[in-house]
Queue: 2 jobs
Job 1
Amino acid sequence: MARGSAGRWQRLNGPARIGGVDLARGLAVIGMFAAHLLTTPEFWDWGDPSTWLIIVDGRSSILFATLAGVSIGLVTGGAVPLTGDRMRTARGRLAVRAGMLWVSGILLILTGVPVYVILPAYAILFLLALPFTRLTSSIVLSAAGGIGLVTAFVHPLLNELPLWYGPFGEEISAVLGWHYPFPVWLAFVLAGLGIARADVRRLRTQLWMLGAGSVLAALGYTGFEAPQDSPYLQQVLTADPHSSGLFEVFGTGGFAIAVIGACLLVCRGVVLRMLVLPLRATGAMPLTAYTAQLLIWAAVALAMIGDTGDLLAFQALEPFWPLTIGTVIGCTAWALLVGRGPLEWVLDRTAKIVVPARPRMVDRLNP
């Protein structure tokens, strides 16, 4: 963890930190809180502000997955992929983190909190993305588009596999995070990885992300109506949240790219970057914020309701604002007073212990 107040401030605000990525993560975390704890409308009408809350439904988790790809890209070299032992070490550490995320996800599922925990899917996506970490931006982005296109048509067939309807179907679905189906969602992670390879620090890349993402979102959300006599095409040609339909993949994927681009542009200015510091602090420790929310939810629900699984009763307590404000304040205070998020620190230290850095060639030749 960061040593001294100057070190903690530098870690959060120094040139090595990409503030726009932290801001986007912070928005994704708060969006997932809203999706969990608030009742979202069934449709979106630009002329009716009461329907705007639907923006968090499905889009927050896809933004989270896209940012996972950005993180993978950054730790494996950013604009220029690592090579040799350095890449093998980075991949090994990512694999260790994936394993720990999967275990963390299973433990959160066992709390009985009635949400679809994203961490098991997150862990699987980390592993699936590893073979793509040596590739260039254009190749990775092309792969993301191709995978998104193909799997949107395959996903309805995968949903009909007997696996999900057997005696342990629900349990298998939970441990695989199938609410966030990894064959489709790999496209979002690879989109983030491709963005990182395009160098998210460059103004040109940020403007491209905002423009291209907005175009994709507009095209995806104005997709044509599927034939009413084809249940299969209705599942494919849809932008409904959590449908993994073609228009959701490209529309919400584009939305995520545009949001990240906008956040990067906002954080180019010093004043705006300081104004959003609490959200950046939350985004600097997303695993801690996400986990803390679910654990507090479980503890409060058990104490006040006697049942961690009663969603309506917990929502009736109106927990969104207390949990959200408490999380933002807690993360900001921790970042400034302690440093790295506690769970992020545990994952990082464990990965470095399990997969130590390989000695440089000069050290091998001159022991």
Job 2
Amino acid sequence: MTEPAVVVDAVRVTYRDAVALDDVSLRVRPGEVLGVLGVNGAGKTTLVETIAGLRRPDAGTVRVLGLDPVAQRRAVRRVLGVQLQEARLHDALTVGELVDLHRAFHADPRPADEALAMVELTERRDVRFERLSGGQQQRLSVALALVGRPRVVVLDELTTGLDPRARRRLWATVESLTSETVLLVSHAMDEVERLCDRVVLLDAGRVVAEGSPAEVVDRVGAASLDEAFLRLTGRAPGEDEDAA
């Protein structure tokens, strides 16, 4: 049986007195696109940051292709690409310079032209990061996550703030990743239903549902994934956890 690409086993993460992840376990199969869903504050970003090695769990274990993302951080960086919600890149560097910089971190990176074409930023190559629109900065972050030919990709709020055309361009980019394992954090149920093979729904730091989008809908007798989300969490996608 094929080993999972990502394993999260009984993970707990706390911030002072607040529990962000409470005994979370999941398996992600090689080549699978897993949607990570939940209201704001449910633990989604903490989960993907823990998988990426940016946070150390208080308890439990995480493995990415059999590697510990904290203890074996350098090895994990060779196989994992990460796009987080907020791009923190050098404002004075151009798009091309940022891509070349990130290419230098990898033994066999994608050609710069290919990475830029994947997110339709070829014509912005000579533009400084600070002069890009928010959507263009988001697309550049995706290009940088993919430039090293990662086997596992984390995409946190992939299309937040993008116009419909830009969203669909990035959906096509994700659909082109046919051999990569993808963890997609999203509030957009249309995006999840189109791109994800399976979803895991977090609420208050715990997994409350898991399965294909259709399975989750059927399990609660809902008419749509939006309705299933609302029934399982008591809140709409994108709503804060404490807003109920």
